[in-house]
Batch of 2 targets.
Target 1
Amino acid sequence: MKSVLDNVRVVLVNTSHPGNIGAAARAMKNMGLTRLYLVDPKHFPAERAVWRAANAADVLANAVVVDTLEEAIGDCGLVVGTSARDRRIPWPALSPRECGETVCREAGQHEVAIVFGREDRGLTNDELQCCTYHVHIPANPDYSSLNLAAAVQVLCYEVRVAYLAIAGGDDVGGWDVPPAKTAELELYYRHLEEALTDLGFHDPDNPRQTMARLRRLFVRIRPDTMELSIMRGVLTAIQNAVHRLDKSSEK
Ligand code: SAH
């Protein structure tokens, strides 16, 4: 029988040590998760990954290897990015417990991703800004960076706890239209930047934090696909008006 957990994927970005990939696969399978995505791993496939996976070699064998984060999360309606420390622009955040609950609730409706960063540098700001929420495991503030696979274990455990609490995981909240997927949001942000540039509001050569702040605004709103297509229509109308004005002033 298909479970909500089948709609949850763990995404590891640019992992250096194949042992961590294997240990993450094991951590996932122990908690009932099976869908592993690897974004441009340094060494994979690798024997070391298979050893560390123990009886989760099937999770490794079925891992989807892609070149970019966009490919790994494009079809997801909820993306949670993990971070070992606070970042410059605060983002909507979940505790690990809330993360487990939100992931389980939404996985009944659409694809969900939990994204983990590089062993040495974590996720970049651009990568974190592709995420709906951020989650931080409240570890010792003097040493808050967990081993990658240990962080995967903690968050997969929280997904498991939430899954068991809703007994089968079909307790999903209703909304009439599905949330916009990551790939649709990325197209929207591109369109928004174009329209704001045409309008003379935004200067791509001196962007400052405008687009990051606008992204965060839309992340907080979490537009559904219908709302997003209305906004795309508004942007096109703005662009058409600007072009008409430009043409008439050329006359
Ligand atoms: N030096 C890096 C640490 C990366 S640890 C940094 O400062 O960002 C590797 C990955 O493990 C992180 O990208 C994150 O996905 C996960 N991780 C480690 N500690 C975490 C924590 N306390 N909370 C959430 N994720 C954590």
Target 2
Amino acid sequence: MPYPIIFDTDPGVDDAQAIAIALRHPDIELLGLTTTYGNVNIETATHNALLLSELAGQSIPVAQGAAAPLAKTKYPAPAFIHGDNGLGNIELPPVSGKAVSQSAAEFIVDTVNARPGEVTLVAVGPLGNLAAALQLDPGIIDKVKHVVIMGGSIKEGGNVTPVAEANIFNDPHAASRVLTAGWPLTMVGLDATHRCVLNPDHMEAIAAGQGELGKVLAGSYAFYAEFYRGALGIDGCCPHDSCALAWLIKPELFTTTKGHLTVVTDGDAEGQTVFAPAGRPFIDSRWNRTPTVEVCTGADGGAIVEWIVDTLK
Ligand code: BDR
Ligand code: CA
């Protein structure tokens, strides 16, 4: 039976590939794309979400969401990683569709309430839309099937600061609300996504299998790969956001453990996700007081990349 999901995203090169998986995988029923600023500004995020579903020949509702963090000052979008247009500065075809009139938060609330117990939220950008949905209707905590977050880091360290992963750093206040809301949640962070590297041969297979959409995925990945070559010295890229969907469909490819998360919202460690393993006492209870969640501590990177390529080739 397919998994009905809402995919919350800031497309973004690796988001684009994950959106392609969400659109194509036979076990995923994509109910809607909700957009957030992050890798790009909010208008570009919405444009790209519409474009990618049109290129896949599908008409998926797109609901526009957060344009800025809840509390902190917004940093400029990382054009040097994703390009000014979020898709590696390649030339893009025109878009004909428009976003729905509901906000992302309204779309999430209405969709979850319409199918209680069925809908999984997969969030792969800063978490303002999920935080806004929680504020609009806290009742969704008991009605979502699951929440999967690409974000955070337990032992891997950060990618935008020594300790913080980008999606959490971009809006730590929203992340704190979402990661501690008490809904069933799995965090797929850098401890898992850094185990996965998509190389140029993988991208060639994906491009060949995806027609017009494939051209955009491969063209944008070439730009993203340049960043990885310079920053991490690898010949390929980490498909962060696709890993959240890999966890949904193939959880056996991940190692996970349960415990409590807190998010640092201020100071030099802003955006850090602090993990206290379940059952382990610390000097006081502050790190154990949040609800129990599941975090990924590792992954079979080769098998995940194979799953991504098999899905899209
Ligand atoms: C995350 O940050 C964004 O740049 C990527 O799209 C991914 O969601 C990785 O840290
Ligand atoms: Ca993303």
